[in-house]
Structures are given as C-alpha cells and as structure tokens.
Prior knowledge:
CATH topology of the domain at 36-161 and 355-446 in chain A: D-Maltodextrin-Binding Protein, domain 2
Number of domains of chain B: 2
Structural class of chain B: mainly alpha
Oligomer: heterodimer
Mean pLDDT of chain A: 86
Number of strands of chain A: 15
CATH architecture of the largest domain in chain B: Orthogonal Bundle
CATH class of the domain at 36-161 and 355-446 in chain A: Alpha Beta
Distance between the termini of chain A: 11 Å
Number of helices of chain B: 16
Number of strands of chain B: 0
Amino acid sequence: MLLSVALVASATPGAEKPTTTTTAAAAYDGKLPLAPGKVTLRFATHTGTNAAMAPPSNDLQVYQHLEKITNVQIEWEVVPYDNYPTVMNTRLAAAGNLPDILNLDRLGNYAKLASQGIIIPQNDLINQYGYYIKEFFKASPGYKALMTAPDGNIYCVENTVLDSHLSVMPMINKYAMQRVGMSMPTTTDEFTNLLKAFRDKDINGNKQADEVPFVFYFKQADTSYLLQLANAFGLEMTWGGGKDLVWMFRVKNGKIECQLQLPEFKAFLTWVNKLYAENLINKDFTTADYNRLIEYVTKGQAGAVNFWSTYAYLFGAASPDNQGDKGGSKVPVFLPMTPLKAPDGSQYYSKRLSLNGEGMGITTRCSAENRPVAMKWIDYLFNGPEALMTQQYGVEGWSYAKNADGTIKHLAPLGMEWSAYVTSIGGNQPPRAHQQLMAIWRTWMHQWLEDYDGTLQKYYKDPSLVQIQFTTEESDVLAAKMPDLETYVMENITKFILGQTPLSQFDAFSKELTKRGIKDVQKVYEQRWKRQFKALGK
Amino acid sequence: MADKMIPERELRGFNRVLHLCRRDRDLLIIISLPFVYYILFKYLPMYGVILAFKDFAVNKGILGSPWVGLRWFEQFFSSPYFFRLIRNTFLLSIYSIIFSFPVPIVFAILLSEIRYRWYQRVAQTASYLPYFLSMVVAMGMVVNFLNVALVRLGLTPLDFMNDARWFRTIYVVSGIWQTFGFNAILYLAAITAIDPQLYEAATIDGATQLQKIRSITLPSIVPTIVILLILNLGNMLNVGFEKIILLYTPANYETADVISTYVYRRGLQENNFGFGTAVGLFNSVINLVLIIVFNKLSRRLSSISLW
C-alpha cells in the first residue's frame, strides 16, 4: 500500500536507531555532532499555523539544546505563517540576501525556483548525508516517487502526514445530540434533520433562538471545511488548496473529469443552499475563522463544527458542555461524525494527500563546504529521534525523563502545567517529520479521539489524484489560467449557496467554465496524473 | 572685488548660477532633502518598470530576463475580469470623492464657528481618532460591531459582508468615518488664515453667520479645496488596497475586486512580477492622464492649478 509509513511505535525512539549496514568507513552514519566545529547556518521559515506555539528562536531552551548536540548554530528568520509566501516571494524576487536553508512552503514550483537559481537539487546530498531520509525512502518507496520532480531531481524532502488521524470532518456535540434525542446521522437527510432539531430545540438552554446548528468557513485556499461535505454526493473535493487546486478534478473509471461540471456537484450545492436558506449553517461562513468557530461553540450555539478532527478536544474544551476538564482530553464532547452515505451507497473520507508541501530547500547561497552540514541538519532535525523528542517533549532532564520501562515522565516546575511549560521552552510542536513517531502523535491526539478515529479507519479512501510536482511548463499554464478561474469558481460557489444565483444557472456556470479554459487546466492535471500512475502504479 | 560692482541682472552663465546659489543657499539646503527623496524613492525605482515587458527570472536579473513585449498587457486586457476591475476601481473612487470629499470641508467650517474653544478641541480630537487606528483594527470593528450596534438599536442584523450591493456603501461610509477629522485639519488651517477684518467688516454691515460663511469663508478656502480635489482625482485609481483585502469575500467580489487586489492575487501570490508591474504601470498611466486633464480643466475654469 502506497501510503503506509514505517511507524516507530515506541516511546523511546533513542533505542530505535536503525542499525547501519554501510561498509564504507567514511560514510555518514547519522551520529552527532553533525559538524566537528561550530557551523552557522541561516534558516528562513514561518511560524507555523498554531499561534500558541513559540516561533523558533535561540532564546528557547529547545533550540539551545539542539544547537549543543548538533554543533550547528541556526540564525532564525521567522515570518508569520499567513504572510510567508508574499514576504518570501518578494524577497526572492529581489534575489539578494538568501538564507542557507529555506522553507519552500507555498513558494511555488520547485523546479522553477531551481531554474531561477534559488535552490539546488538535493539528490547527491541525500545519497551522502541523508541518513534518516534514505531509511525513510527505503521503507516507503512511494514517497520517494512522490517527492521526485518530473525532471528527476529531488529539490526537497517534504514533510509527510500520517495516513490517518488527520482529516477534516464534521464533529457533533454528543450532549446536544442527546438533548434532542437523536443519534449519529448516516445520510444527508438525517444530518439535515439533526441540524433542524439543533435549531429548534434550544440546545444551549438559554431560551433564545440563537442556535447556529452547523458552523464552518469557506475561503480561498481554505476550502476543505465546506467541500469535504461533497463526499456525501460521491465527489472527492477535500484536499488541495493554495497553488494546487486538485479539488476541482478527480479520476473515475480511468478518466479524469472536472467535478465542478458534474450533476453531483449541482446536487451538493443545492443541498448546502437549502441548509443556508433554512438557517442551519452560519451566515458568516465567508468571513469566519477558527476563533469565530470557537466563539460559536463557547456560547453553546453550535451543535456541529466542520474542522480538523484533531481539534475535537479543543472544541470540547470550549463548549459549555465540558465537564470541568480544561484540556478537553478526558471527556469527549465533540465526536467525529461517521461519513454520510453517498447516493450510490459509498461512505468515505478522503485520506489526506500525504505530503504537506512543507519541505526545506538548500539555497545556492549555501557555500559548498556548508551544504553537507545543511543536509545533515535537515535530515536530523526532522528525523533524528532525539531531535524529534526535543521538539515535542522539550529537553531531557528539564521537561521530561525516561522511565525504566521506556515510558515518558513529564517534568515541570512546581505549579506550572506541563504542556504550557513545554510550549514556553519551545517544545510541543506538531509532528513535522518524514518518519513520524507514534509516541509523539499521541500527545496531539487524545486517547479517546484516537480510539474514535480508529473506528473510522475503514472509511478512509485514497484520493485518485495525488499532489505531486508540476513541470515548469505546466505551472506556467496554471499561473496564466488559474487565478481567474479560481476567482470565478469561488465567487459562484458562494453565490449559489447564498441563493444570489439560482441553481437553475448551474448549466450556464458549467458552460462558462469551459469557455474560460477549464479544459486546458484539466489537461495539465491529466498529464500529472499520468506521471503519478507511472510512479505509483495507480 | 570686481563682481560686486556688476549688477545681478548683468551676470551671465556660470557666474550667475553661482551667485544665485550663494544668495539662496538656505532655501537650497531646505529643498535638497525632498529632492534626494524624490530621486531615490520615486525616480530611480522607475527603472523597474521595464519588468512590465519582461518574464522576470531572479537569477537573470531585471535586464537579463527575456523580453516578452506586451504579453502581460494582453493577458490583463483579455481577462474576463478586466472591465469589472476598471468599473469597480472607478466607481469606488468616484463615490469616495463625491461623498467623502465635502465632509471635512463642512466639518471644518462648523468647527471654526464653535465659540467654546474647549469644545472645539475635544470635538476635533475625537473626530480624528479613527484615523490613527490601524486599518486591521478599524475594519475588524466594521465587520464585527456594526451588526451588534444594529441589534442594540432594535434593528435586524444585516448580512452585509455577503451582499455585493452593500460593499460600496460600507467602503465609502467607513472611509468617511476614518478620515474626515484628519482631512479637516488642512481646511481649518486655511480658515484660520482668513483675515479677521473681513468678518468684522461683514458684522458691521449686518451680515448673518450664514452669509459670512458663504461670502467670506468659502471663497477664501476655494484654492485649498481645488488643489486637494485635483490631487484626489489624480489618485483616482489608487483605491485603498488594504481596506479591500480586509473586507472582500468571494460573495462581494462583484463590487469589491479592484485592480490592486487583482494585482495582489495574480502578481504577488502567483509570483508573477511582470504581470503585476504591467498592471501597475497601466494604473499609473491612467492616473497621470487624469491629473493632467483635471489640472487643465481647473486652470481654464478657475485659474487655480497645480502647475
């Protein structure tokens, strides 16, 4: 199976170091320190999506510890997550002042960046110094194929996402469900009826009709929270966003098609339009954000939320139904929903497309003698067991200790909550790794949520189109066609839902898409799918 | 000294320049800073305009990148959104000028008529406070509090962010709220400069307060009004980009999407600097034409002009 990752399911990853089989004496074996003398590298990256997390800085113990064990001193340049592509693209255009290592998240086509003289191919460096990366490629050759650009080069090793445990799906407040006397819905009709009951039966008990049964938001590059619901109509539109609008297409019966022009999509829009007209979804779905969703939940107005299921415990913690458990970790309030049945009887969630686009490039500015160190550092930071433990649990002896049986003991100063303490010293980071450690995921997924997700496993389905690299020619076609098409599509989906354009206009919308060149874009996606087929055999 | 004997008007060439420089050196020193500023930040960067005709690649630099002629202009003019962008940009500017331009004038006149000094000061300070709020905060207030206020007033909340018909109103009204106090400062200064004898004479002649405003205050500040109007018209296509980015959603693109937001989406977000520059250049050329036309018009009609 393509997406199976070798998981090291142990809480003591230090003991799990793969035994080296290389015979050449000079071969790098992943041992510390990464450089004999101190080496300084400049690293430009973003803050990550989690605002509560401390951005990387040498003032934090976690990074001081990493510097000590690797002998690599990093000069951090950290840009807020949302502005990262704009800030960094502008800086790259000015060409001067490149860092040594550059986070390539949302910066565009890698091959193009290389042809512009910004980054270098890493194939040889990985062969010589990518100790853990090679182990990972050996265990999951599918990933290696995914990360190889059409020109045969690997420009960066993107972070991977676990097969499961991460999806966007509706989560339903189980207490609200009990109050209205209904159970987990399995069809769109049952779901609609449940939302109606939430709307009419005063689920927060404040004697006001202020319920907003189902909340989510829909924005450019943030389309999943709405489009995931199209699964219930047999479509697969969950993933893709930013520069890769893969959600517009799918492969069915060996043929690529534009989902936006299918009758199923019309049925989906008709349904959401009905939800909107009957006050079952939040009216501000075009402007809301995560904080707004939390606000709806905090006031007890929302009975269901569509968001990352890993956030279920945070919504639970915010809900008035929470039973005094601040972290929301012990008493589940918001339960992930079983997928709704599509008209053909299928019932599924689309697996996340396995790569999250965040990969570290080595720039042309990085000097020849520093390139091996940069490669070793990237390899170690995202795969080295001790580095991963440090980024998650903090520094051994300071914020955690290993028990004799291999489990982890939390340490924190008196009166301070462990999680807050670890965050304050730079730890508690979401797993950003190639080979991910189950133990680390566990701190992000509370046990009940993990169990619950386990029962949903049978519904996870591989997407038919995987987000692999485009060629430079393909990305030029997309750059010329896509912005206008995306504007047109976003605008019309919104208007159909709001009822500002009647659904009788759907055929006109579909025709206009063809007129504006959606087929040229489809051709690009088809070419890429052929490469995907060649690399992965499906 | 021989040159002391020669009268100024008889000096010729270099000597004359040297003499004038020496005479006006204080003024020259004062003007030199703005001069350097304009050269450095306004004229030198104009060299980047050639990006509009090139397919910019970082490693090749601005001059080395391949020449693509009018490709970006063709792409922009053939975009299905071209006319909508032009229409939205113009309409937002025209509505802003029509509705927000007179407000600070009226406000300045009203303020100047207030007898109580302390009340005048408080009113003025309160009026220009919104100007100093950051755009993000101000628009956050518009988005979040407007409906709260409507509910408090017993009215039904409006779904105004999802309705393209509301966007222009929101844009113009919030613009007035943000800037009228601050823009009134220039007019207030002009009013203070009016010779008080004029008012005294009018009082003796028995003029009412309104007559004084009509016949003294307004005519005296007309030059200020006209010059600010010309400058405003010359900036017609430069609508408030950050403000629109903060307020627009796919639901109101129809009236909210303007040239600058489009450049942001296609030029900056897609890393297509040639395209962005081409549209920016188009924008500037239109602005230049507008300012020349309006300046000519104004000179013909009122003999007041920028040059």
